[in-house]
């Protein structure tokens, strides 16, 4: 399986994850009112290049043969994921901005996402972001050898729903490693003890997507950006983990 890595590949993934986390920090600093999402995308691409890292999303080909044109996905407020950066979409005070970045270091890929508040954001939005982060931590904690993929989703769902938020059902995390998107899919809901087994050397991109309202989605007119159908706020966070000595090692996190 392409997401079960050997020792040298795991070392490369750790190195790549550290560099991607540096880029995400720069992006966070660049999220200021008046800057366009296209400018943020260029900032991220330049930072990746400066570190000798490839932009894994740029020119990514979908099953339909369409290539994604940017280095990042930048999704704002009611947008969940796959937000296409645009020169005419400026960041404004009070936005919550989800930034998703994939990096390629040689033959190994890593993936991470964070949702940031710009200036003062509504209390519910802040709680939503914190709940998404708690869901990510809970999901990662289940990614150890001997568990199953369903254990990750069940943990995420439990934290989200106990906090009073919805979980997006039509999108999922994924395996990662020798390509940016690999099996297995990792739903953010489900039953413990079901699904593929988690084994030593397995690399997983775990990515909770929480919403204030209904979990149903819509695709915006650009053909890429996924948003909530009811226009409620959404938060998306993601880390790449690898199972090492039976336990999850977060290569993009703190």
CATH superfamily: Creatinase/methionine aminopeptidase superfamily
Secondary-structure class: alpha+beta
Number of domains: 1
Count of beta strands? 15
Describe the sheet with the most strands.
5 strands, antiparallel
Which regions have little confidence, pLDDT < 50, spanning 5+ residues?
Answer: none
Reported by name, the CATH topology is: Creatine Amidinohydrolase
Task: Write down the secondary-structure element order.
Answer: HHEEEEEHHEEEEEEEEEE
**What count of helical segments does DSSP give?**
4
Overall, the morphology is: globular
Mean pLDDT: 97
What is the CATH top level name?
Answer: Alpha Beta
Share of residues in helices: 25-40%
In terms of DSSP E residues, the strand content is 25-35%
Distance between the termini: 27 Å
Mind telling me which CATH architecture this is?
A: Alpha-Beta Complex
Widest β-sheet, arrangement of strands: 8-7-9-14-15
Radius of gyration: 17 Å
Quick structural gist:
With 254 residues, this protein is α+β, with helices and mostly antiparallel strands. The chain is built from four helices and 15 strands.
Explain the overall architecture.
- The protein has a single domain, classed as Creatine Amidinohydrolase, CATH 3.90.230.
- Helix content is 28%, strand content 26%.
- It is built from 4 helices and 15 strands.
- Strands 8-7-9-14-15 form a 5-stranded antiparallel β-sheet. Strands 1, 2, 4 and 5 form a 4-stranded antiparallel β-sheet that branches. A 3-stranded antiparallel β-sheet has the order 3-12-11, with no helix packed on it.
- The mean pLDDT is 97.
């Amino acid at each position: 399986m392409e997401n079960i890595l050997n020792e040298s590949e795991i070392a490369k993934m750790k190195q790549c994850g550290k560099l991607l986390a540096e880029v995400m920090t720069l992006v966070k600093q660049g999220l200021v009112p008046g800057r366009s999402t296209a400018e943020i995308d260029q900032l991220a691409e330049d930072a990746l290049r400066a570190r000798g890292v490839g932009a894994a999303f740029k020119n990514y080909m979908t099953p339909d043969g369409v290539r994604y044109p940017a280095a990042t996905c930048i999704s704002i407020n009611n947008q969940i994921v796959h937000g296409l950066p645009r020169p005419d979409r400026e960041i404004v005070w009070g936005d919550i901005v989800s930034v998703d970045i994939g990096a390629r270091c040689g033959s190994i890929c890593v993936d991470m996402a964070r949702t940031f508040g710009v200036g003062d954001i509504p209390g519910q939005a802040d709680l939503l972001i914190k709940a998404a982060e708690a869901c990510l931590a809970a999901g990662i904690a289940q990614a150890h050898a001997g568990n199953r993929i369903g254990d990750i989703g069940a943990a995420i769902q439990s934290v989200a729903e106990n906090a009073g938020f919805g979980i997006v059902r039509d999108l999922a995390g994924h395996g990662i490693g020798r390509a940016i998107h690999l099996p297995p899919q990792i739903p953010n809901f489900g039953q413990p003890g079901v699904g593929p087994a988690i084994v030593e050397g397995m690399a997983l991109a775990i990515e909770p997507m929480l919403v204030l309202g209904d979990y149903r989605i819509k695709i915006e007119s650009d053909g890429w950006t996924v948003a909530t159908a009811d226009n409620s706020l959404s938060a998306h966070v993601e880390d790449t983990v690898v199972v090492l000595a039976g336990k999850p090692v977060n290569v993009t996190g703190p």
